[in-house]
Specification:
Blueprint: H1 6-25, H2 28-31, H3 43-59, H4 66-79, E1 85-93, E2 96-105, E3 108-111, H5 113-116, E4 120-124
Antiparallel strand pairs: 1-2, 1-4, 2-3
Helix pairs in contact: 1-3, 1-4, 3-4
Length: 130
């Protein structure tokens, strides 16, 4: 696959920084109160956003785990007027309770797919309006 355009990479860095600040400044329940409406993202759009966020999150000087990446992906999809929905789940790994957040657009998981299958969904944002 080709390298994402620099403008998309810069957008991902900014979206991750804003997501990190949002997690520090606002209660978590506010992030799940609404969904972004619009058409579902295509396979190519999902791949571009996933790949760009993964690359950007490895290079930033602050923590960007599943929650930050899901919020950043939601921002990037909203800029493109594409639908998205946040999901929160819990599971057990080696006897320890774990939590995970992932983002979907239509039926496609944009970020967090690797861990989503090992977690039971507890909450999700409302169904996006078209």
């Amino acid at each position: 696959m080709r390298r994402p355009p620099f403008s998309v990479y810069l957008e991902a860095c900014m979206a991750l920084a804003m997501a990190r600040m949002a997690l520090l400044a606002r209660p978590s329940k506010t992030h799940f109160s609404a969904s972004v409406g619009g058409a579902p993202a295509s396979e190519e759009q999902v791949a571009l956003i996933h790949r760009t966020l993964t690359a950007a999150s490895r290079r930033l000087p602050f923590r960007t785990l599943c929650y930050e990446q899901a919020l950043a992906a939601r921002t990037m999809l909203a800029r493109r007027r594409l639908s998205s929905r946040l999901h929160f789940g819990t599971g057990k790994t080696d006897g320890d309770l774990t939590a995970h957040v992932w983002l979907t657009s239509g039926e496609r998981i944009v970020v967090g797919a690797d861990e989503a299958a090992r977690h039971i969904e507890l909450a999700r944002s409302p169904e996006p309006e078209a």
